[in-house]
DNA sequence: ACCGAAGCGGAGCAGTTGCTCCGGTAGGGT
DNA sequence: ACCCTACCGGAGCAACTGCTCCGCTTCGGT
């Protein structure tokens, strides 16, 4: 950590999935454990996790943690990148080609995922006012952004998404709904999503799933 | 916290606006200063403020702070109650009697207010998973809840709000939008609000304010 | 003017956090 | 089988947090 020769402006994450050179097997295993533990704890409790707890759950010591990642933030960062990447992959694989249902399903799936990991968006939104260096957000944008853009383009083409809506609008709506999804019962946020989709549709106002019988 | 005799489930908030007995003038002044400082800091940075900083901004010492409020939480609580009360009063005074525009204006005003105080909703939503004792939320519900209920009732009666929407839905939407309003430029969240209102309207899909020219 | 008590302030305590240090351990090329 | 080296682990440091303690000040009734 004292004098790094040169390299890119991104210091950490040399290869999350490609150890490449001859790394010791236990080192690779511990790195993976740390990433999993960090991701799990972020999902459960948000991004203000105790490093000791990460190490404990990963069943490694503090020295190991800080050998693999220069700082807590770098660890969380790497974990988040992995999470966002796998989300984008799963969402992309779930597409059927029918634009409007795909959009709705993508949003519903994203919110379900968010329900299981309340802390994810917290990490994403953390330090938003200051911005400047929120890499979680950048990772999400890089991984999921193109997918949303494609969904929006296709839905525009099918004529069901009102033309004045941008991919940015959809991303924003997703973040907004994602902030409440984990803290209310699922039927509640499904109602909200339904209303939102109605607002997004060219011709709007379809009946809600079930107005008074929640499930 | 050891053994409370009986009393109501709300322990704190003896009298935020009614010192009643013969209180010393400086005490009352300092109490007000603490409330203002706390509210200001919560608005700016959310509910994880340093008590020392509250005391510093209020220009009082730590002893004074803890003389007036038994715990940090109690202080934040009292400050939040005051904030929510004045919000409800202002919003209630702004009503014109025309239901649908009133609802839209109420939401827009709430979001503007939220933009100026990003930390407010953080305090409101904090510890939501555990729930159990989030008094900020209770205060908001008590103060603002009836107002939203009335807005929804009137908008239903006017026939413009789709009948399957409940006051709970509107509250939830407000929270969701409030979570993003402070972190994006105002035109962006106004677009989102517009879409949402379209989704709430019986016959939907009116043109957005300005699709591509943000302001 | 006087005086008792309520009020004031900030140094200090205990707990928690992110991070470092260094003796011991075990991997893997030879 | 050997040994060098990268790696492991957890005790310890410094900074920060919420909160308490206690000597001094100031209010306000007489």
What does this structure look like?
The structure is a homodimer of 215-residue chains. In chain A, 63% of the residues lie in helices and 0% in strands. Chain A has helices at 25-45, 51-58, 62-68, 72-93, 99-116, 119-125, 135-158, 167-180, 186-200. Chain A has 215 residues and is mostly helical. Chains A and B meet through helix 8 and helix 9 of A and helix 8 and helix 9 of B. The first copy, chain A, binds a DNA duplex (30 and 30 nucleotides) through residues 22, 24-27, 30, 50-52, 55, 60-67, 71-72.
Keywords:
Arc Repressor Mutant, subunit A; homodimer; disordered N terminus; 215 residues; mainly alpha; Tetracycline Repressor, domain 2; elongated; 9 helices; DNA-binding; disordered C terminus
Taking pLDDT < 50 over at least 5 consecutive residues as the criterion, the unreliable ranges of chain A are 1-21, 210-215
Which class of the largest domain in chain A in CATH terms?
Answer: Mainly Alpha
What is the terminal-to-terminal distance of chain A? 55 Å
Largest sheet of chain A: none
Q: Beta fraction of the residues of chain A?
A: under 5%
- Order of SSEs of chain A: HHHHHHHHH
Shape of chain A: elongated
What is the averaged pLDDT score of chain A?
82
Oligomer: homodimer
Largest interface: A-B, 39 and 39 residues
Rg of chain A (C-alpha, Å): 20 Å
The total tally of domains of chain A equals 2
Q: Portion of residues in helices of chain A?
A: 55-70%
> Structural class per helix/strand content of chain A?
mainly alpha
CATH architecture of the largest domain in chain A: Orthogonal Bundle
Q: What's the β-strand tally of chain A?
A: 0
**Number of H- or I-type helical stretches of chain A:** 9
CATH topology of the largest domain in chain A: Tetracycline Repressor, domain 2
């Amino acid at each position: 950590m004292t004098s790094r020769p040169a390299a890119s402006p991104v210091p950490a994450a040399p290869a999350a999935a490609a150890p490449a050179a001859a790394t010791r097997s236990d080192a690779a295993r511990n790195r993976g454990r740390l990433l999993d533990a960090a991701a799990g704890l972020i999902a459960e409790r948000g991004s203000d996790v105790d490093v000791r707890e990460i190490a404990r759950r990963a069943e490694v010591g503090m020295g190991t943690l800080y050998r693999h990642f220069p700082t807590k933030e770098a660890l969380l960062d790497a974990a988040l990148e992995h999470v966002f990447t796998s989300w984008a992959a799963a969402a992309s694989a779930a597409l059927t080609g029918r634009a409007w249902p795909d959009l709705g399903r993508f949003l519903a799936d994203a919110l379900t995922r968010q329900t299981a990991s309340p802390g994810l968006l917290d990490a994403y939104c953390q330090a938003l006012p200051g911005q400047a260096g929120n890499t979680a957000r950048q990772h999400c944008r890089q991984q999921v952004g193109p997918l949303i853009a494609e969904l929006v383009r296709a839905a525009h083409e099918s004529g069901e998404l009102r033309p004045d809506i941008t991919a940015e609008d959809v991303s924003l709506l997703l973040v907004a709904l994602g902030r409440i999804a984990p803290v209310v019962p699922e039927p509640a946020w499904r109602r909200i999503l339904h209303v939102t989709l109605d607002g997004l549709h060219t011709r709007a106002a379809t009946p809600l799933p079930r107005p008074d019988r929640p499930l």
